[in-house]
Amino acid sequence: MKKLTLITLLFAFSFSMSGCLKDPLANSLEGEWEVTSWRSGGLELIDPLYVASFTMDFGDYDSADQEGDVDWTVRFSDGSSTSLSGTYEVDQEDSELTVTFDGDSETFEIDLDGDDLELSNGTETIEAERD
Fold first, then answer.
1. What residues contact 8, with CB distance under 8 A and at least 6 apart?
2. What pLDDT is attached to residue 22?
3. In whole angstroms, what is the distance from residue 104 CA to residue 91 CA?
4. Which residues pair with 113 in a beta bridge?
5. What mean pLDDT value characterizes the chain?
6. For domain 23-130, which architecture applies?
7. Half-sphere exposure of 73 (CA within 13 A, CB side)
8. How far apart are the first and last CA of the chain?
9. CA 129, CA 113: separation in Å to the nearest integer?
């Protein structure tokens, strides 16, 4: 009887932990990131002439819904700014991030090393550090 109880407890523990570890890549994205480089078509946009700053804020990732909220804020060199709010999804297996703003989606390959993040999709590359 003790063995059965122990096996049941171990099974329940491993099942509950698998839910916590289900999306480690998505969980690692959560938080605010300061973009240090944003290249589009070979042109660097983080530059005193174009973009003064760019932040990405990834909200808590809901493993059940397979998405989280995301806010991107770009401050231009002329003092104006724009903010985009939407959702993000992470494909753990392919290391891909899909962000959706106003019904338009963009998919990026994710390269995450601690507090350093690189997102790339062939035409754009975004490098960021955790804020």
1. none
2. 53
3. 18
4. 116
5. 87
6. Beta Barrel (2.40)
7. 11
8. 52
9. 10
pLDDT in tens, 63-77: 899 999 999 999 999
Residue type (1 letter), 49 = L
Extents of the domains making up the chain: 23-130
DSSP letter at 123 equals S
Which tens digit of pLDDT belongs to each residue from 97-110? 999 999 999 999 99
pLDDT at 33 over 80: yes
Question: How many residues does the structure list for the chain?
Answer: 131
Structure tokens at 89: 């999804």
CA distances from 39 to 53, 75, 102 (A): 13, 16, 23
Name the token pair of 57: 């804020």
For 15-78, the DSSP string reads HHHHHHTS-HHHHHH-EEEEEEEEEETTEE-BSTTSEEEEEEEEEEEETTTTEEEEEEEEEETT
Whole-model pTM above 0.90? Answer: no
